[in-house]
Design brief:
alpha/beta; 17 strands; 8-stranded mixed β-sheet; about 300 residues
């Protein structure tokens, strides 16, 4: 957090049918609906998250991601990062407070990959769902489905991975935890962390701009990932691959799709990162093992299905 960025704050996801999507993210994945607004957007959170929301669903004609936001330490930090982005040559725009219910003003910018990002300092805090801040129980009763604890990260596809890495590391203070390089040493994958997590944001080189590969949500154990696999089959949800283990980050994972075709991941475990760690490097020719450690090959859907 050397530049004041604390964590992923929220992601706004486009869906084709809002109620069908709400059922997927609440009944199946276990996120909690916290609000709706006059635009018809639905606000969700994982039960351990203290902010009012971390996922926003918006009805649209095509699926994908509208924007990804990061929460910063305070308003002074937000002002400083806004100035630093503009000085770096990355133009910013301001979104007024309460355009998202319960959220303060947001500073938006477009990364070299074409993705829209936001920074914000203030958001209403409603606390962990069903658990008190005083003598809290281990977990709340009444959780649904996979019982996702939090929105964790996104993997994004687009051009200019090297430039995106420089922007996030040099201006926003992220650290490069892992990378994928081609035979010429060019960076084609970048996994960056702003704290101790394996990564908070990741980019993979792709000629198409502003593509979403997946949003990811944290579970507590390998047994929880296996339960998620059971629930995917019990509900006839479209599965991508898993359960399996990553080579990158070593997390244990399963991938599946929401009804609009947006890929979701739930996972547990994974490596940790400190700023003095040398980046882990994976060779592009070994990408199959890097992504799917057990199978050691990539399935075609994982590479080609983007929203």
């Amino acid at each position: 957090m050397k530049h004041g960025v604390m964590r992923p704050g929220h992601v706004q996801i486009r869906v084709l049918d809002i109620e069908e999507a709400v059922t997927h993210y609440t009944d199946l994945m276990g996120l909690i609906e916290t609000d709706r607004d006059d635009q018809g957007r639905v606000y969700l959170k994982g039960w351990t998250e203290v902010d009012k929301f971390s996922v926003v669903l918006r009805k649209a004609d095509e699926p994908g991601m509208d924007f990804l936001a990061f929460k910063v330490l305070d308003e002074q930090t937000l002002n400083k990062l806004e100035a630093n982005l503009n000085a770096y040559g990355c133009a910013t725009e301001t979104v007024a407070a309460e355009e998202l219910k319960g959220c303060g003003r947001r500073v938006q910018f477009v990364a070299p990959s074409g993705h829209l990002f936001e920074l914000f300092a203030d958001k209403e805090q409603t606390g962990k769902w069903g658990v008190s801040n005083v003598n809290p129980e281990a977990w709340p009763r009444g959780l649904q489905g996979m019982q996702c604890t939090r929105f964790d990260h996104t993997l994004l596809y687009g051009p200019n991975v090297e430039a995106c890495t420089q922007l996030f590391c040099d201006v926003l203070g992220f650290g490069l935890a892992e990378q994928v390089v081609d035979p010429d040493g060019n960076k084609i994958g970048s996994f960056m962390s702003v704290g101790m997590k394996a990564h908070d944001i990741a980019f993979i080189e792709c000629p198409e701009k502003a593509k979403l590969h997946h949003t990811s949500y944290f579970l507590e154990s390998w047994e929880s990932v296996l339960k998620a696999a059971d629930l995917i089959s019990m509900t006839d949800t479209n599965i991508d691959i898993g359960p399996t283990r990553h080579g990158l980050t070593h997390g244990q994972t399963i991938y599946f799709f929401d009804p609009s075709g947006n890929r979701c991941e739930v996972f547990c475990g994974g490596d940790y990162y400190y700023p003095d760690h040398e980046p882990i490097t994976w060779k592009a020719e070994d990408l199959g093992k890097a992504i799917f450690y057990h199978d050691r090959v990539l399935n075609e859907r994982f590479l080609s299905v983007l929203t």
